[in-house]
User: Fold this.
Amino acid sequence: MILYYIVSIIVEVNHHKETIIQLIEMRKLIFGFIFCFTILLMWINLSLYTDCFTPQEKQEDILKQLHFIEAELKTNNLANRMQDYFPEGFVFANALYGLSWCEMAGFDSTPSFTNKALNEALFAYGELNSNRAKNFFDEQLKPEYGIFYMGWKNYLLSKVLQIDTNFEQFTHYKSVFSAQCQAISMALSQSSTPFLESYKNQTWPADMFAAMASLKNYDKLFGPTYELEIAEWIKKVRTRLDPRTNLIPHRVESDNGRVIEGSRGSSISLIIRLLAEIDSIFAREQFQLYKSIFVTTTFGLPSVREYPTGQNGKGDIDSGPVICGIGFSGTIVSIGSFSMIGDFESAQRQYNTINAFGFATSFGKEKKYVFGLLPIADAFIAWGRATDLKNMNKSQSHFKLWGVLFHLFTLLILTILWLLYFSKVIISKFRIYRSAS
Assistant:
């Protein structure tokens, strides 16, 4: 009888051997997943504080980003690759690279650095002025090739001329800049709406702000020429706000400026960044509304909604991915928006959050995000950080424990996961304890 039971047990064990092995392997996989997830969350939490740099250290860190973007532009066909992703990829890749160097030159005015910044910014402008760039746009628009192309090209040139008024080709570029400003002014004077076309019968107000910022910069460089025109333009913009949010809209009708699509995080973040250079009072008004409607926190960390509070929508070319209502583009661009308004603490926290979740990697003289898979994001981050560095002047960042709520969320999630994993052991020990007592 005993032999029979022993044989039965052996047969039963063999019969379920595969199932037992599978359960053991599954448990190992679950343990591995939870362990890796724990390390990942801990790394993100720590990364929220790793970029607490002095201004000089911050400058070096931004330079690493620019070295990566430079290599991508000059040796890895970055601008053309980004053009394959979205219609403005070529222009943005070059414009943001050049603008980042211009902002950096505003922080470091040593001759060697100024020369480097000037050369790189002129390289970027040359790319924008190429036939390759123009081929993406319609020459018949007013101004030529549309306000997106002309606006960003002229805005970059306005920043280049601010770096150094004594470089060899300054007179030539001043003449070009003056002609382009006049072209923008002429097109605006012939329009019944303050928002000119980027493409035939397609108008996005954000594109207009780069153009108007370039006119404002002309006045800063060479004396008031477009002051009255800019003031009149601001008056017209105020009459064409999104009625729901009272913010500048995302998309309007080309012939009359009526709202097609209300304000969105991706565009209003960029608009405020540029509007601060054009009209600081209007920019602050828009910023206060923006903070109440779009700026939020996700699990305790700062972020920017793509759609106004109470409204949902999908991601697109303008916004990038939209997850839990948060838009990637608007969140990244907001670093520069906060800085231009003077909210440096928010700018730093937003950058630290992006830096942590962007899985920043730094090797040698280069720094990149998400393993360099989408360098256009690196370019926007660099532009925002360079703007922040320039506007903060020589002030120094200090360590602050600010992500407490996110740390508590992390602790809660990890506690639940590990309790679930060890639940059988805990229950078993609890039963033994109760039996013993």
